[in-house]
Amino acid sequence: MSTTLNLKLKVWRQESADDVGAFEYYDVAVADDASFLEMLDYVNEGLILDDREPIAFDHDCREGICGSCSLMIDGQAHGPQKGTATCQLFMRKFSDGDEIVVEPWRAAGFPLVKDLAVNRAAFDRIIEAGGYISVNTGAAPDANITLVPKEAADAAMDAAACIGCGACVAACPNSAGNLFTAAKLQHLNLLPQGQPERLARTEAMVEKMEEFFGSCTNHGECQEACPKEISVDFIAMMNRDYLKAKLANRKRSGQKKFG
Amino acid sequence: MTQATESRPGADAPEVNGPPKQSRFWIVEFYSSAIGKKWVMALTGIGLMGFVLVHMVGNLKMFLGRTEFDHYAESLRTLLYPIFPHGVVLWIFRIGLIVMFGFHIHSAYTLTRMNHRARPIKYQSPRDYVAVTFASRTMRWTGIIIGLYLIFHLADLTWGFANPDFVRGAAYDNLVASFERWPIAIIYILANIALGIHLFHGGWSIFQSTGMNNPRYNSARRGFAAGFAILVAGINCLFPIAVLAGVVH
């Protein structure tokens, strides 16, 4: 049996990027087995019935793998539960009578679209800068022809778990995008398939990232906020690879600058 | 087949910091990037940590008395003498320190500006931080305190104009005369607490910024930073306390 929670919501409402926003208060009674986004759906149904504008928020798969949902909940990206995206956060984490504050991600790199929705196109630009490998087409290679140590595959998989939600940027006191960029770099840089373009990729993605975001001061808030619990160790690897990218004899390794 | 998508205003990524700097010299390009500046911050930080450690060890000589301490102070000027003339090696060290301080402060200043640009609109509700420490949140302020203190420290015991009893070359007497005034002693103690806090985050940050990441020593990184901070700042705080307590007189 689920119990009903009576909650007071304090939600950021803003018509568009150019408007002035403010918090608005909503009372909601919701079953404790609802997810946080379902709770917002209930609120929106009520708003629509009252002929008021529903709260805009990003969501898609609602099973924690697409990276669409966001939300700063009570001052924490994706809310108080570690290793969980907002869609997988359930209302049983809250108590009857709680006031819950909901704010959009705040970063110059993520301009606000409306209410709680922000534009995360900056992440797409970083991926475009080098978050891929180049493979010439031809016959399919034999399985296991490229040997990958189990540990390297595991580490690459840990980095590849990044869903690109932007919680790292949102949680970072400096709005740095280092955890996202490091994850997207290292899941390729750790594998043999990623080596031919490793240095060029690192340089291009880091420098694209720095067009949008702040710098890392090693607080570690990002790895705590990350719904996939990606480690700041990948940032350390990225820092090392960036120095290599600048120092190495790139002419010899054929890794000319991207772009 | 590629599809043309209609571009709406405000739909693309925003302009925040501008494109990366291009240069013929890799080192200029490297330093113009934020990660490059973090490297420079870390490497100059290592140099400055070496300096504060040696400075602290040298000052321990005050417990051996006036003759030993003044002899140590003079020996700094005769380092590698007669290969180098009197005082030259000390000046090489001083120039090195000034350059390291310069880059350390410049990179910190530029990165702080960049970080402020990256979040022009702050969170309107209180943040609930999970991982930040007091030290990591106050690096800018402890850094500024150390910088101001450094100028005072030079005025007090190197240039001497902040110390009414200053006699050039009488290192031990100058130090005792300075620390015997309790307000001055408190300035030294507070500044060294700030130094300890700065070293606690900086000492760990070095490993992260330079990619020193290895399961063999990862668990020791925080301990190293804490140990180094307590060692240097703690013993530095002992000096004014020893003078005030009459152990060194």
Q: Identify the CATH homologous superfamily of chain B.
A: Fumarate reductase/succinate dehydrogenase, transmembrane subunit
Silhouette of chain B: elongated
Number of helices of chain B: 9
Number of strands of chain A: 7
CATH fold-level name of the largest domain in chain A: Fumarate Reductase Iron-sulfur Protein, Chain B, domain 2
> How much β-strand is present in the residues of chain A?
5-15%
From N to C, what is the helix and strand string of chain B? HHHHHHHHH
CATH class of the largest domain in chain A: Mainly Alpha
Biggest sheet details of chain A: 5 strands, mixed
CATH fold-level topology of chain B:
3 helical TM bundles of succinate and fumarate reductases
GO biological process, one term (chain A): aerobic respiration
Domain 4Fe-4S ferredoxin-type (chain A): 153-182
Domain 2Fe-2S ferredoxin-type (chain A): 7-106
GO molecular function, one term (chain A): electron transfer activity
The gist of it:
The complex is a heterodimer of chains A (259) and B (249). By secondary structure, chain A is α+β, with helices and mostly antiparallel strands.
Give your account of this protein's structure:
Chain A: Residues 153-182 form the 4Fe-4S ferredoxin-type domain. Chain A: InterPro entries: 2Fe-2S_ferredoxin-like_sf (IPR036010), 2Fe-2S_ferredoxin-type (IPR001041), 2Fe2S_fd_BS (IPR006058), 4Fe4S_Fe-S-bd (IPR017896), 4Fe4S_Fe_S_CS (IPR017900), Beta-grasp_dom_sf (IPR012675), Helical_ferredxn (IPR009051), SDH/FRD_Iron-Sulfur (IPR050573). The complex is a heterodimer of chains A (259) and B (249). The radius of gyration of chain A is 21 Å and the shape is elongated. Chain A folds into two domains: 4-113, Roll (Ubiquitin-like (UB roll)), CATH 3.10.20.30; 121-253, Fumarate Reductase Iron-sulfur Protein, Chain B, domain 2, CATH 1.10.1060.10. Chain A has nine helices and seven strands; from the N terminus they run E-E-H-E-E-E-E-E-H-H-H-H-H-H-H-H. With 259 residues, chain A is of the alpha+beta class. The mean pLDDT of chain A is 95. The longest helix of chain A is centred in the last third of the chain and has 15 residues, at 233-247. The termini of chain B are far apart. The relative contact order of chain B is 0.11. In chain B, helix 1 (26-32) packs across helix 2 (34-59), helix 2 (34-59) crosses helix 4 and helix 8 (182-209) packs antiparallel against helix 9. With 249 residues, chain B is mainly α. Chain B has a single domain (28-118, 135-244), classed as Fumarate reductase/succinate dehydrogenase, transmembrane subunit (3 helical TM bundles of succinate and fumarate reductases, Up-down Bundle), CATH 1.20.1300.10. Helices cover 64% and strands 0% of the residues of chain B. The chains are: A alpha+beta (259), B mainly alpha (249). At the A-B interface, helix 2, helix 7 and helix 8 of A face helix 1, helix 2, helix 4 and helix 8 of B.
